[in-house]
UniProtKB/TrEMBL annotation:
It holds the Pfam family Acetyltransf_1. InterPro entries: Acyl_CoA_acyltransferase (IPR016181), Diverse_Substrate_AcTransf (IPR051016), GNAT_dom (IPR000182). It comes from Vibrio zhugei. Residues 1-87 form the N-acetyltransferase domain. Coiled coil: none annotated. This is GNAT family N-acetyltransferase.
Length: 96
């Protein structure tokens, strides 16, 4: 099976209000999403956490998630998107 043909799940945001934390809501939510991922035969289920969010990182590690150090996240903000979109210079080694 091709690497690009594998289904995966991505959680964009999971936020539990501070007064509701520690009541199992986050874990129940992730269990539910993991069940969906299993039903869909997903090879992986991914999400991000800020490096400064120690309580979330500890929680994710405690439920068995693996912290990936080999991946860097890159982002363009709106003005950077506009600048890149209007850049029509050919890329090195291409004619486009």
């Amino acid at each position: 099976m091709s690497h690009f043909a594998v289904e995966f799940g991505h959680l964009d945001d999971l936020y539990v209000e501070p007064e509701c934390q520690g009541k199992g809501i986050g874990k129940k939510t992730l269990i539910y999403l993991a069940q969906i991922a299993k039903e869909k035969d997903c090879a992986r289920f991914e999400w991000w956490a800020l490096k400064t969010n120690d309580s979330a990182i500890k929680f994710y590690l405690n439920i068995g998630a693996q912290k990936l150090d080999e991946i860097s996240v890159f982002r363009l903000n709106q003005s950077q998107i506009e600048n890149l979109a209007k850049d029509n210079k050919p890329m090195h080694g291409t004619s486009a």
